[in-house]
Every structure is written in structure tokens, then in C-alpha cells.
């Protein structure tokens, strides 16, 4: 079985947020497989505390979102990084590995974050590392789509190495005061499915 992974990288797990400290502050840790806001790994087989996932229609996953599961690496050494851990929609029975019987289709990963509009001037989504098996199609903020990379990143299969250092400005008109939603679609073509992120959402400092 091929474990095809796309990887997209971008800026910052909390552990690497120092680079952003010069121009903004972290308002949401997006890193998969770590305790939210820390660098502490979540145990393999446990629920991720940031991301939940909805399965493709007809895949047997039922209706609605379910907790994403922290799993072992989907690929070789190149797919491993100290800043986070992979998450998946389903574990292979009795193991911490992603299910080999992953149904093809789009798996929608979702997280929530809060915005303070009192002095808002900019917001960015940053990835130091972002991987998906088979590929990440796009991400959305409150339903508004953003391009992660070139078209080849969306239509082709990604292998190694991980893509890195991507930072995307968010249109403030796409945000609301209070609760906001980020969605990332992962397209699965065959066995195994998963998502790996080291990153965060930042905004300008407010007095």
C-alpha cells in the first residue's frame, strides 16, 4: 500500500512562535497531536484536543463530526517532525496506526478559534509543517476558501519532502467577533488517511 502524503509547511507551532512574536501574537495553536497551547504530545490513540473530523458520506462514519485520533506516522522518517503528531479519522483495530481500510473521499477537519475585534488590523494562518494523506485540497475560514499552494499541490499526490514556511493573510471581512471556524479538507484516494500540522493563527498585538 502506498502511503501518499502531501505536505505543506507553514509557520508555527507554539514551540516556534518566537518568530512571530516580533509582529503579532498567537491566538490559536493549530498543531496536531499536542496539548493545545503547549508542546506536550498527546498519547497515541487518544483524541486530539483541537481538531475534529467529519467522514465522507456513505463511509460508515455516521452523521456529524467525531474527535480526530492521534496516530503513528503515516510515512517514513521524512514524515516525522518533533513539533506535532499525525491525526486520523480512524485507528486500525487494536493499534495506534491509521486504519488501512480508509474509505476514499474527502475528510473534513475542523477547529474553532476566537477573535478580539477591539483593535484588529491583520490575521494570518501559519504553517511550519502541514501534511496530508493523500493531499490537502484547501482551507476555509468561516466558509471562505484560501489557496494553500500551487494547483499541483491540490490535484497531484504529494510525497516528500514536507513543504514549509507558508503564511497566509486572512481577509478581515471573513472573520466575526467571537467564535470562528477553520476547515481543512483532506482527500483520501486509498488506504490510510491523516493530517499533520505544526502551525498557528496569529494577529496583531492589541494594547
Fold and architecture overview:
There is one protein chain. This protein is mainly beta and 207 residues long. It has one domain: Jelly Rolls (Sandwich). Helices cover 2% and strands 41% of the residues. The chain contains 1 helix and 12 strands; from the N terminus they run E-E-E-E-E-E-E-E-E-H-E-E-E. The strands form 2 sheets. The chain has a 7-stranded antiparallel beta sheet with strand order 5-4-3-6-11-8-9. Strands 1, 2, 7, 10 and 12 form a 5-stranded antiparallel beta sheet that branches. A hairpin with a 2-residue loop joins strand 8 and strand 9. The N terminus is likely disordered. Keywords: Signal.
Would you summarize the structure shown here?
By secondary structure, the chain is mainly beta. 2% of the residues lie in helices and 41% in strands. Strand 8 and strand 9 form a beta hairpin.
- CATH hierarchy, class: Mainly Beta
Number of strands: 12
The number of helical runs is: 1
Strand order of the largest sheet: 5-4-3-6-11-8-9
Q: CA-to-CA gap between the ends?
A: 53 Å
Strand fraction: 35-45%
Low-confidence stretches: 1-22
SSE-based structural type = mainly beta
- Major sheet size, sense and barrel closure: 7 strands, antiparallel
Task: Indicate the CATH architecture.
Answer: Sandwich
Return the CATH topology.
Jelly Rolls
What is the N-to-C order of secondary-structure elements (H for helix, E for strand)? EEEEEEEEEHEEE
Shape: globular
Amino acid at each position: 500500500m502506498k502511503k501518499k502524503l502531501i505536505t505543506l509547511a507553514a509557520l508555527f507551532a507554539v514551540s516556534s512562535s518566537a518568530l512571530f512574536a516580533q509582529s503579532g501574537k498567537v491566538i490559536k495553536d493549530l498543531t496536531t497531536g499536542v496539548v493545545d497551547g503547549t508542546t506536550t504530545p498527546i498519547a497515541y490513540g487518544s483524541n486530539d484536543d483541537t481538531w475534529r473530523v467529519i467522514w465522507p458520506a456513505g463511509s460508515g462514519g455516521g452523521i456529524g463530526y467525531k474527535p480526530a485520533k492521534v496516530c503513528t506516522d503515516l510515512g517514513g522518517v521524512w514524515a516525522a517532525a518533533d513539533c506535532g503528531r499525525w491525526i486520523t479519522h480512524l485507528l486500525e483495530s487494536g493499534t495506534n496506526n491509521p486504519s488501512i481500510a480508509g474509505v476514499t473521499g474527502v475528510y473534513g477537519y475542523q477547529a474553532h478559534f476566537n477573535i478580539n475585534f477591539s483593535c484588529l488590523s491583520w490575521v494570518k494562518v501559519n504553517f511550519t509543517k502541514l501534511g496530508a494523506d493523500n493531499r490537502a485540497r484547501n482551507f476555509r475560514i468561516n466558509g471562505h476558501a484560501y489557496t494553500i499552494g500551487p494547483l499541483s499541490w491540490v490535484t497531484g499526490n504529494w510525497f516528500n519532502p514536507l513543504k514549509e514556511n507558508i503564511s497566509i493573510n486572512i481577509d478581515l471581512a471573513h472573520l466575526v467577533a467571537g467564535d470562528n471556524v477553520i476547515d481543512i479538507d483532506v482527500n483520501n484516494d486509498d488506504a490510510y488517511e491523516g493530517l499533520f500540522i505544526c502551525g498557528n493563527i496569529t494577529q496583531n498585538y492589541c494594547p
